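Database export, one record per block. Field names are fixed; values are copied verbatim from the stored entry.
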Amino acid sequence: MARSWTSRVTRSASVAPSSLLDHPDNIVIHPPEQEEEMLTLLRTVGWAAPILVSETTGRIIDGHMRVSLAVRAGIPRVPVDYVALSEEDERKALLYLRRSTQLARIDPVNLEVILNSIETNDDELAAMARSFAAATEGLKYSPKVREIVEWQEVTIGPLTFLVRWADYVQWRAMLREAHFSRKPTVLFEIQRRLGLVA
C-alpha cells in the first residue's frame, strides 16, 4: 500500500502582487508572446491556479510571469498558496516544476477537439488557438464564432415553451443547485412542478 504524499501547502491567501518576491534562482525566461497569451487567458478566463510562494522566504516558486503581469496591470490582489519549503527544497521545486512541463506532450486528438469546441468572439483567443493549431502537425482547426442566443426552446412532453435565455439559464442553475443534478433529473423536476408526472 502506497504512503500518502506530504502536502506542503500551509495556507491560501489573496495578496498584493507587489508584495511577492521574485526567486533569485528562477530558471525561466518568458518571451513577449507567452506574456500576451497569458494576458489573454487571465482576461478571458481569470485565475485558474494560484501563485506558489514559499512560506519560509516569501519567494515565488511558481507564477513569476503572472505576478509580473498583475503588477504591470495594476491588479490589486492575486491568489496565493503558501508552501512550507526549505531553501534547498525551493530550488528543487523550481527545477522539477519546469522539467515536468517540458516532458509533457500534446495529445493532438484532444487538442483538436478542444480547439474546435471553443466558441469565441475574442480575436486574441482565436489568434492564440490558431497559433496552437499551426504548431501541431496535421491538426484541423475550424474556429467557431459564438452565437448570441436570446431564446431557448424547452420541450416537455407535448408542450414547447420559448423562454428568454437569461431566464432559462437562471432557472436551470437553481434547479441543479437545489437537486444536485444533471439534465435528466432537471427535466423530471420541471415535469413534476408542471404536474405532468407524479
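Remark 1: The first helix runs from residue 32 to 44.
Remark 2: The chain has seven helices and six strands.
End of record.
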